[in-house]
Amino acid sequence: MPRQKKTEPKQITPEPEQKKTEPKQKLVKPLVGKELLHKVKELETLNKSEKAKKCGYYTVNKNGLGRINMNQFLQALIEADGIDLDGHSGGDGGGGRSASYRVKVHSSGQLIIGAAYTKQLELQPGDEFDLILGRKHIRLKQIEAPEEG
Prior knowledge:
alpha+beta; single chain; two-stranded antiparallel sheet; 4 helices; elongated
């Protein structure tokens, strides 16, 4: 019987995969704070789903299906309006400490109001206030700048 010649198994190289061309979605950073409130007022004629979408609370999955993040949108609206439902203050995602709405008298006797509060109130350097002392409280009343005219 004649001997059969051994042949090496043929290596099969896979064809290069064709890249799927998905439409690139423009990532929109969701609006927060005063920007969010302003945009929502601007879009008053739209329904809440469209408002959420236009304010950036919308994602597209890998299959190209869109999803409105309504819970995140509503939570951001609540925080932007200054309502604290769970005892934590809202933040802008900037990292660092968040406003706790509590201050402590320092050993020097000073009370310091941090930048998180002044930023939220849109206060500027040089803004002045009257201190109104109560029995166990202090109230700040902003002094209006005299109108130039």
